[in-house]
Specification:
By secondary structure, the chain is of the alpha/beta class. The protein folds into two domains: about 325 residues, ANL, N-terminal domain (Rossmann fold), CATH 3.40.50; about 100 residues, ANL, C-terminal domain (GMP Synthetase, Chain A, domain 3), CATH 3.30.300.30. The protein is built from eleven helices and 21 strands. The protein has a nine-stranded mixed β-sheet. Strands 10-11-12-15 form a four-stranded antiparallel β-sheet. Helix 9 links the parallel strand 6 and strand 7. The chain is globular. The termini are far apart. Bound molecules: 5'-O-[hydroxy(phenylacetyl)phosphoryl]adenosine. The site of 5'-O-[hydroxy(phenylacetyl)phosphoryl]adenosine (DLL) has 20 residues, from helix 6, strand 7 and strand 12. Pathway: Aromatic compound metabolism. One of its GO terms (molecular function) is phenylacetate-CoA ligase activity.
Amino acid sequence: MNFWQPKIETMRKSDLQDLQLRRLKDTVKRAYDNVPFYHQKMKDLGMKPGDVTSLGDAGALPETKKGDLRDNYPFGLFAVPKSEIVRVHASSGTTGKPTVVGYTAKDLETWSAMVARDLTMVGCTKDDVFQNAVNYGFFTGGLGIHYGIERMGAMAVPSGTGSTKRQIEIMIDFGVTALHCTPSYALYLAETAIDMGVADDLSLKIGCFGAEPWSDEARSELEEMLNIKAYDSYGLSEMFGPGVAFECQEQNGLHIWEDHFLVEIVDPEGGLCAPGERGELVLTSLTKEAMPLIRYRTGDVTYTMEDDCPCGRTSVKLHRFLGRADDMLVVRGINVFPSQIEDVLLKMPEIGDYFQVIVDRKRHGLDEIAIKVEMSNSAFTGELSDLARLQKKVESELKSVMKIRSKIELVEKGTLPRTEGKSKKIVDLREI
Ligand code: DLL
């Protein structure tokens, strides 16, 4: 099977919309007939599946929130008998029960074909040796990407996480040409390869990174350190997992697969955002059998880009994610995204790649931001006056972007924790 699928990927908008409407009707009916949660929600709204006659009607359908998955833990949102489920994944939140997702055999096929399509889009072929350096387990990034690699026909190297030096040796010994992991782990791998003095022995060409927000600056660093082209990969367990939206070789926005998902971007009041207007991504699955989700509030902030993509694909593109709506820090009434901080810091040559933001509520109830920042090796002269100057410089650059003052603490390279999965850049000590 060929995973460059021009018939779908370059489909005329009107044909795509016909396909979406057919699939939306199916999905709504499946949910109404088989999932008591949706049956009740639609009943409360006075809706029947037959009321959906155009894509515009989707806006009247009930929303689904992460809490609804928790409330129906573990299998309450499945639309098929348990005997039809061939796999589950789960993601653990910070509180309470994990959220569980299930797949039928057909779901797994749909998902691996979607990932194969993504990998083909960024130029992978069956000749690639593809290392998947993420956690294999409940996290969808492991098995999800793994089966996509195999489906496309490349050689999967399921290294998982951990033993970072060993991972680098494997990359060299096996002639690994493509890598998938989180951007934070990619940075750690790159740093380790450089420290081992073997960065030039790598044969990497392509990096696919996702599962957490990362900035354009981080991309440039990774491309330079690993001598690759680095692509952004977006997904969430509730919508299969990785592969939902992926950059093409233009590296300018992520194509979201509209044959599988209906896309809305909404403002905090739930109103639809115009193209280019920032809001929360809301997705309706169109092909999921085991667990169809209607108008799922992803919590992720982005906007749609309407320009035609030179690659020829017609599916709408999402701007790289600015963070999660609930990751956004509101400090003294000002909205701050960790990605903004990352953008500023990584542009400064004196600063290394790691930082940690600590928000605390001090006397008189005022919030304060302190940022621990690792210096690059070259910036560490040992002169106290140099350090003070650098500290002031970082503070003033951040203030000009964030509009609020932060307290910078410069620390030596290697001080802050490295991570193999999703990094935790924010520590919020406020009791709100
Ligand atoms: O992180 C699936 C995945 C695995 C995506 C590997 C890409 C690569 P969850 O653990 O359910 O699934 O977490 C989903 O991670 O709602 C976003 O907040 C965040 N996220 C995922 N990809 C990106 C990205 C996987 N490229 C949550 N940029 C999502 C920013 C991302 N945030």
